[in-house]
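In these records, each integer encodes one residue's backbone shape. Here is one protein:

___
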Amino acid sequence: MKKLSEQNNLLKPPKIGELVEGKIISKGKSSLFLDLGPIGTGIIYGREFQGVKDTLKKLKIGDNIFAKIIELENEEGYVELSISEAGKDLTWESLKQKKEKREQIKVKILGANKGGLLTEISGIPAFLPVSQLSPEHYPRLQPAHHPPVKREIDTQKILRELQKFIGKELEVQIFDLDPKTGKLILSEKAEQSEKIKEILKNYKVGDIVEGQITGLVDFGAFIKFGPENLEGLIHISELDWQLIEDPSEIVKVGQKVKAEITEISDAKVSLSLKALKKDPWKDIAKIYKKGDIVKGKIIRLNPFGAFVQITPSGPAAPEAFKGRRLKIQGLCHISEFGSRTKMEDVLRVNKKYDFQILFIDPKEHRINLKLSPTTLKGY
């Protein structure tokens, strides 16, 4: 507020919408007069007075208050002022200062939606997104096992988890604000992020850490590691070399694992389990070659073609596969059928068929397939 006063003390022409500070020089039943110094005399009356009369009653002559100019000169020569408008501006100014100082603020959670938590600060509605919750409060949901209805189920589960915070107090910082749009975004993890950044200076990409799985979500698994109990994410694509649709296929909550740090970005840590496992694709060329006939199970059908799961087995299978039930995924392109309708007539999800290898590239983890000639004869 000091900066604001200093600005107003400069001999600048006053403007509508500007905040000014004045001293109360007179009070009436329906009006209040302020000495605005070089600007002149200000008045609060009519609707502006009635809207805040309870507040004005508590003020006495000689008190200094802030007000907002709504008219430079009325018919009687006074500068018309508004305290209610000034109050909003002062509140936003105060919030801006709290943001700059990274001040911790206690808020009471008033509501929740699927995107986060609802609260208010100084009468201004505020939003705490799920992404800005501390790791401790982030919703941990078991992955859904039925992809077609997964999104709907998870949304309801997340909402139920967030509703548990209604009525509770959380410590937050102001993450972003915009007085023009009334946007006030909060963060619970901002303060923790600064501490985590400092701790992460002791780690580097490539470090192998030992930790415990703390939660599973559709996109991966959370892991706590190190003496500082840092938390990172193992993305679903980094859990294993095989295609994973459900993280619980590979890890369980409470399980102790070793993982390799693959990325450190600000306060976020990404890790990998598969980096510490042998890549089974390196041995694929030892058992398969172009033209071979292989047995494959249809995983799913989409506009590009059929995704086919191949599980090498038997004496010829390399050590990387033995006892691990590893699965290699190939693609039978839609062009092999002519149309999606024909493909769906021929193939069924979860059924096994004979395929011929058209192309194999272990480095790119790619196998292109087509239905074997003998299989096609039946259609």
Observations:
- The domain at 102-188 is CATH 2.40.50.140 (OB fold (Dihydrolipoamide Acetyltransferase, E2P)).
- The CA atoms of residues 63 and 277 lie 73 Å apart.
